[in-house]
Amino acid sequence: MICLEDILLDGTLRRVLHSFKEATGMAATVIDSSGEPVFELEEWDNCAICRLVRSADEGRRKCSVSYRSAGLQAASLGDLYVFQCHAGIVNWVAPLVVDSKLVGSIASQNLLDK
């Protein structure tokens, strides 16, 4: 069975994220099914609110819970999902599904001006 690491190995997803950044000016990252970032572009730059929230262990934990929940919702919908995280920031996730199982998501940190 294909896992998230297999998807990341060939480099296609990295090129897609770079193209997305160039086209929109927004960075995106790959998160695993538990909500943890596993691949980030060098240009990934959290907004000031996110940096503050993620500076504490509890804040990072809540971020992971938010991304995990959103990834599951996106997989359930079979589509991109726009949501508000626990800190009130607007984000989106697109599910990465293999054999009907969520293996991760592509996420944009936020839709707000950094």
Percent of residues in beta strands?
A: 25-35%
- Unreliable stretches, pLDDT < 50, 5 or more residues? none
Gap between N and C termini, in Å? Answer: 38 Å
- Computed structural class: alpha+beta
What string, H for helix and E for strand, traces the elements in order? HHEEHHEEE
Question: Helix count, per DSSP?
Answer: 4
Shape: globular
State the major sheet.
Answer: 5 strands, antiparallel
How large is the radius of gyration?
A: 13 Å
Estimate percent helicity.
40-55%
List how many beta strands DSSP finds.
5
Kindly report the average pLDDT value.
85
Task: Describe what this molecule looks like in 3D.
By secondary structure, this protein is an alpha+beta fold. 41% of the residues lie in helices and 26% in strands. The chain contains 4 helices and 5 strands; from the N terminus they run ααββααβββ. It has helices at residues 4-9, 12-24, 48-54, 57-77, and strands at 28-32, 37-40, 81-84, 90-98, 101-108. Strands 2-1-5-4-3 form a 5-stranded antiparallel β-sheet, with helices on both faces. The chain is globular. The mean pLDDT is 85.
